[in-house]
Amino acid sequence: MFLLDKHRGLPAYVPGDHEEGGGFIRLNTNESPYPPSPGVAAAVEREIGKLNYYNDPDCTALREALARRYGVAPSQVIAANGSDEILYFAFMAFSDGEHPIALPDITYGYYDLFAASLGIPLEKIPLKADFTLDYRDYCGVGKTIVFPNPNAPTGYAIPLEQIAEIARTNPDNVVIIDEAYVDFGAESALSLIGQHENLLIVRTFSKSRSMAGARIGFAMGSEALISDLETIRNSVNLYSVSRMAQAAGVAAIREDDYYMANCRRIIEAREFTTRMLRDQGFEVLDSLGNFVFAKPSAMSAAALKFQLRERGILVRHWDKDRIRDYLRITIGTMQEMQALDAAIEMIFGRA
Ligand code: PMP
To answer: What is the CATH number of the domain that holds 325?
Structure first.
């Protein structure tokens, strides 16, 4: 009742069903099916006794570890509470009512909500009929640009040269490339940040690094861009990466081989899943993410989502134009994907 009128129309993000326990196979929120590496638990444990002290607001150790891992300077890295917070800071820093954002019509849903809460107008650029993104639609648009590469929920990525061209033709605007899913087979645009001061690469520990619940996101870009984001962070939420999250992040980078090996397992399971779903009559996009976007032929996507839930498997569906015939299915372990195969066979009455 005290909420300002301007906030009354704010849409609410509808997250995937959160079923803690209950024996569900969770293929609905693009989490990793693998737990964090052993060093993470030990590192978090060490922080617990120090919780009476504030965490390092500069995330120094984490930024240094990331800088070494990715071959950039620590001043080119910023960390925050999940990549959602990084994205929010970036929207705040680079856009407002007079500085709109251009983005695909089908993409990560939170961009819409961040923009709505900040009063930022959006120019939604439709993906092609086959869900591919035509980079020429973004060349010279003269607005802040954001999209994931690979895109979600399609899983399609565009090559580096096209990202470079988008950045080159929008020199006065920031181009935000959300690389939440890049470790599953797409090419990172990180190598371009030296040439393009306006290019911001956003990453997360939530997918390939098995730590969605720790809330660690980071971004890399020119020192100028990172310093702009620090200005926002310092005025909004300086301590947003907890002691435990910072320590977990550093430990995970130390054990990066474990995570990269898991990415390879997920890619293998994705190839299996794509073939399996096609055999079951689905139309499946060739995804480079830890998920596939697939259209069943034997029944509606909404009905299949419901039926899978009845059998203990959660998948994601949006009742939204252009995509309501599709399900987004997260790639879990091979065993989980085989369970999905068996469940679909039962549902379609073929078992
Ligand atoms: N970007 C994309 C494309 C996503 O799909 C997600 C989460 N599903 C995020 C960003 C946010 O991830 P997090 O805040 O957990 O880092």
So the answer is: 3.90.1150.10
Per-residue confidence (pLDDT) for residue 17, from 0 to 100: 79
By the 8 A CB rule, do 87 and 200 touch?
no
Residue 120, domain extent: 38-254
Q: Give residue 171's identity as a one-letter amino acid code.
A: P
Cα(25)–Cα(308) distance, rounded to whole angstroms? 10
Same domain? For 219 and 321 the reply is no
Angle at 71 between CA 65 and CA 77, to 5 degrees: 60
Residue 180 has pLDDT above 90, yes or no: yes
Measured in Å, residue 84 CA sits from the centre of ligand 1 at: 6
Number of domains the chain is built from: 2
CB 118 within 8 A of CB 146: no
How many Å apart are CA 102 and CA 134, to the nearest integer?
13
Within 6 Å (CB) of ligand 1, which residues are found? 30, 82-84, 108, 148, 152, 178, 180, 204, 206, 212, 217
Domain boundary among 254, 273, 291: 254
- 293-311 per-position pLDDT tens digit: 999 998 999 999 999 999 9
| Residue 91 near residue 117 (C-beta atoms within 8 A) | no
Neighbours of 279 (CB within 10 A): 11
Residue 45 tokens read as 């444990």
Ligand 1 centre from 88 Cα, in Å?
A: 11
Structure token digits, residue 204? 């997360």
Tokens of 11: 């849409």
Domain endpoint, select from 254, 284, 307: 254
Nearest-atom index, ligand 1, CA of 30: 8
Residue 12 has pLDDT above 70, yes or no: yes
Question: Tokens 């909004």 appear where?
Answer: 236
CA distance linking residue 95 with residue 176, whole number of Å = 12
The Å distance, Cα 231 to ligand 1 centre, comes to 22
Same domain, 42 and 165: yes
Please state the length of the chain.
351
Q: Measure the CA–CA gap between 64 and 76, rounded to whole angstroms.
A: 10
